[in-house]
Amino acid sequence: MANETIEITHQGKTFEMDEDGFIARFEDWCPEWIDLVRESEGIAEITDQHMKVIDFIQEYYKRNGIAPMVRVITKSTGFKLKEVYELFPSGPARGACRMAGLPSPTGCV
Predict the structure, then answer these.
(1) For residue 104, is it within any domain?
(2) CB contact at 8 A, 29 and 100
(3) Number of structural domains, the chain?
(4) Directed axis angle between helix 48-64 and helix 70-77, to 10°?
(5) Which of 43, 99, 97 is nearest to 69 (CA)?
(6) Is residue 36 part of a domain?
(7) Spatial distance between the Cα atoms of 76 and 63, rounded to a whole number of angstroms
(8) Where residue 67 sits, what CATH number does that domain have?
(9) What are phi and psi of 9, to 5 degrees?
């Protein structure tokens, strides 16, 4: 069964995303994607703390080809797990990885 993709335009940019709301291609990520996901996640404003987590996740993904595990995110960013959930209410896999432009995770992160 092929994964269905949905096309959405936000702030003049068109994105393809899967049925779970993850961007179809990491290379299509841009700041407009963050704004689109921020709205759907119910995050009022993207802060430097959000960007610290997003930047780390993206760099990890570029180096390793997979999303970092939660404990790697917390250890590397210095945020406690509770703080990551405060920043990304739907969690590190759903919210943070989705906002960072990673594909839908296949396992537990």
Answers:
(1) no
(2) yes
(3) 1
(4) 120
(5) 97
(6) yes
(7) 14
(8) 3.30.1420.10
(9) -110, 130
- Give the distance, in angstroms, between the CA of residue 69 and the centroid of all CA atoms in the same chain: 13
CA distances from 52 to 3, 12, 20, 37 (A): 31, 26, 24, 16
Has residue 90 been placed in a domain? yes
Each residue of 51-69: pLDDT tens digit?
A: 999 999 999 999 999 999 9
Residues 64-101 have pLDDT tens digits of 999 999 999 999 999 999 999 999 999 888 899 999 99
Structure token pair of residue 44: 């009022």
> Any idea which residue has 């335009």 for tokens?
9
Q: Give the DSSP H/E element, type plus range, for residue 48.
A: helix 48-64
Place of tokens 């990520």: 29
109/70 Cα distance (integer angstroms): 6
Predicted structure pTM score: 0.89
Q: Where in the sequence is the domain holding 77, given as residue range(s)?
A: 5-99
Q: Cβ neighbours of residue 72 under 8 Å, at least 6 residues apart?
A: 60
Contact between residue 109 and residue 69 where contact means Cβ atoms under 8 Å apart: yes
